[in-house]
Amino acid sequence: MTLRIAMAQLDMLVGDITKNTQSVIDAAHNARDEEQADVVVFPELTLTGYPPEDLLLRSSLDLRIESALAKILAEVHDIYVIVGYPRRIDGELFNCAGVIYQGELLLEYAKQKLPNFLVFDDKRYFREGEEAGIVDIRGVRVGLSICEDIWHPQPIAQAKAAGAELILNLNASPYHTEKMGEREALLHQRATEVSLPIVYVNYMGAQDELVYEGGSFAVNAKGLKVRQAPWFEAGLYCVDIIVDQSQPNKVEPVAGAISPALGLEASVYQAMVLGLRDYITKNRFKGIVLGLSGGIDSALSLAVAVDAIGADRVQAVMMPYTYTSSISLHDAEEEANLLGVKYSVLPIEPMVSAFTEVLAPEFDGYGKDTTEENLQARTRGVALMAISNKKGLMVLTTGNKSEMAVGYATLYGDMVGGYSVLKDVFKTLVFKLCRYRNTLGYVIPERVITRPPSAELAPDQKDEDSLPSYDILDEILRLYIEEDQSAGAILATGQFDRDTVYRVLRLVDVNEYKRRQAPTGVRITARGFGRDRRYPITNGWHIGE
């Protein structure tokens, strides 16, 4: 006998339980009728979308979930549906996976391991489950687990002890650059510990800063991958399980299609595109407007915007000032033409002059400093927000992680906007991503990639006049932000001088107030700014060993 399991990696809208429920019903019907599947498995908390955050505290949640389950029970037959949702039991809220078949809720399993680190806040909302969840599906004893459960040996060993012959794991596991390999290594370890095959079904889509890349897969009892669904593609992907009652290990997944692994640049770029597309679509923006400077960050952001929602919904605005070079004007126009977007040139000198004139009495007796530079950036921010308000377009900011880390950005200026695709992308990776994007089609002029980065807020200004080289800066930032290493530990690597390390770390610390006011953006590392990293703005912590 063959048991066909459809892995449903779908893109849900957080909070829209009615729409998500209909998506489950439609996918179940497709799995049954088009894929001839016996079972369809959906990710963790599918009915609410993930992560629902404090929507879980809403008083009407219970009624909405009960209504959703009743609808699935009534409308889906002749296929086993395994779906994730929150459920209140005896006054406590649990993160559940339910098994539905022929109008009955056969089993409800409650997640046992609740992550409470980085982007996860499960213990804020849920109580831990305690019991294994085993259900008989056409003669196969199937054990359920939910996301974090698979990262610990106990829940899977408990399922094996309860008689499980196959493990189904429902996930909402967010993307970061190392996560794909980590999951595969994990399932190899877990499967070999219990000598059971595991089917891992992951969420697909984006929610604010989090991206879920799908990539559902199955391993056999030896931990070898036998089926791999695509990354960053919603859909139903089937894995066949051979059931032979005459064999000791009677349940064996059949080798099927294995989607190729993605390289670093390809996976990051797709995460950026998906994150932006879902943010624009789910928040119902008409399109995007961004400031195009002729520099590398705005060039990459423009390419992502076009790939996410199409050139017809993107407007690029060049806002030159006295210090804007002719090269920048030429390159910005070329970028816009290569990508086919609407392009405007709005000189800001009259506006800056007007601000300067009005402020002259307040500035009397003070020499010129960064105030005048910031005024240029803030004027551009005003112009972009005016276009945004008038046309219903979202402003896409273009600052990268290196700049945001050390505060090399103007509050209420180039930080103005609704979303950022580079927020978690170090400058050194920006260069690589531009070259990667050009392999898909030439859209970023070579000179934009190779000439020294500059904010062009002062004559002959270069980023490295104010900052260490990006190779040095990004490695210090990685050690401090993503690995939480102290100044002493960073210096112990022998790569950097003391003054540079202390200066960079101080810049990171004192600019927390800026980052709190920055727009959300795609998370691509294991430790991005936002949900991952929560440091007090006001504090007396001293940089040290």
Q: Could you please describe the fold and organization of this structure?
A:
- The protein is of the alpha/beta class and 545 residues long.
- It folds into two domains: 2-260, Nitrilase/N-carbamoyl-D-aminoacid amidohydrolase, CATH 3.60.110.10; 265-516, HUPs (Rossmann fold), CATH 3.40.50.620.
- The protein is built from 17 helices and 20 strands.
- It has a seven-stranded mixed β-sheet with strand order 5-4-3-2-1-14-15, covered by helices on one side.
- Strand 6 and strand 7 (140-146) form a beta hairpin.
- The longest helix is centred in the C-terminal third of the chain and has 22 residues, at 370-391.
- The termini are far apart.
- 47% of the residues are buried.
- The mean pLDDT is 94.
> How many strands, what sense, and barrel or not for the largest sheet?
7 strands, mixed
Q: How many distinct beta strands?
A: 20
Q: What number is the mean pLDDT? A: 94
What topology, given as strand order, has the largest sheet?
5-4-3-2-1-14-15
Strand content: 15-25%
